[in-house]
Write a structure and sequence with these properties.
The relative contact order is 0.20. By secondary structure, this protein is an alpha/beta fold. Helix content is about 30%, strand content about 20%. It has helices at about 15-25, 45-55, 75-90, 105-120, 150-160, 190-195, 205-210, 215-225; strands at about 5-10, 35-40, 60-65, 95, 100-105, 120-130, 170, 190, 230-240, 270-274. The chain is globular and about 50 Å long. The protein starts with a strand and ends with a strand.
Length: about 270
């Protein structure tokens, strides 16, 4: 199989974590062409690091953009950037990889194999959850809930559905898990043309902010509404690390962007290639 893939990563103010993500893409055992497209969201330190360490890497394409004064972090902003990167990619397939997560070496290969085997243009994997320090997340509390009691209740719901299990950090995402759980953005392999016709919603309501519904929830609902056949390969190949904006509820992680509830605004950007 020689299907071409572009991995899309948005990054801001965490160059050390980004290097882990870049390394995981470079270590893929997939034999086809893999491009890694990185959009630096207004961070000169990250741009300087990439220029120093990866400037001669032909498979790594990096762009620097400037934020406008009205832009704030969160899924609305991130969805706009992911949509932009989808339009920038030129390969058959696109994947997403958050800058604080990483792929197992077989991640892309097994997703493409699943796509070929099933004929699906949208396939996804399963994942493991890790604490920010790299230890497996074993608490019986769903970390995406803002409230402890709600997190414990949601964990019990998900356990009853077989999505998670006590004593394990594996999350078995899938379309049959709705409304309990969506598919994480970094688990997807999606045909680029399909994504361009089903780009991420950039509007989020106050209720969605309260319930921590992000752009991955919206993407799955759009694909389902379009009646896209979605397949899970049932392979645990994404390593998801807590401490991003959707799980940094107490503000203890200094690297994390904050999802601030404000009115939406359109971004203004300028790209500078390495």
């Amino acid at each position: 199989m020689n299907d071409t893939i572009t991995v899309l990563t948005v990054t801001r103010h965490r160059p050390e974590l980004l290097q882990r993500a870049i390394h995981s893409v470079s270590q893929q055992d997939y034999e086809g062409e893999v491009q890694h497209l990185i959009l630096i969201d207004d961070c000169m330190d990250t741009y300087a690091m990439l220029k120093q360490h990866y400037g001669s890497n032909d498979n790594l394409n990096c762009f620097l953009r400037a934020r406008s004064l009205t832009e704030t972090s969160g899924p609305e902003h991130l969805a706009r950037l992911r949509n932009l990167m989808g339009r920038m990619a030129e390969t058959q397939w696109i994947c997403f990889l958050d800058d604080d997560n990483e792929y197992e070496p077989h991640h892309l290969r097994q997703l493409v194999e699943c796509a070929h085997r099933t004929g699906s243009l949208a396939v996804h994997s399963w994942m493991q959850i890790f604490n920010f320090d790299g230890t497996p997340y074993m608490k019986q509390r769903w970390p995406w809930c803002r409230d402890d009691k709600e997190g414990q209740r949601r964990y019990q719901e998900l356990e009853s559905k077989g999505i998670i299990s006590a004593g394990s950090n594996i999350v078995k995402d899938g379309i049959n898990n709705l409304p309990y759980r969506c598919v994480d953005t970094s688990e997807w392999l999606i045909d680029r043309e399909l994504f361009l016709n089903n780009q991420m919603s950039t509007h989020f309501s106050y209720e969605e902010w309260v319930n921590n519904k992000a752009e991955d929830d919206k993407l799955l609902m759009q694909l389902l509404a379009a009646k896209v056949p979605i397949v899970c390969n049932k392979v645990v190949s994404l390593k998801y690390y807590l401490g991003g904006y959707s799980t940094n509820h107490d503000g203890r992680y200094t690297h994390s962007q904050i999802w601030e509830w404000q009115g939406g605004s359109k971004p203004s950007f300028a790209n500078t290639s390495l």
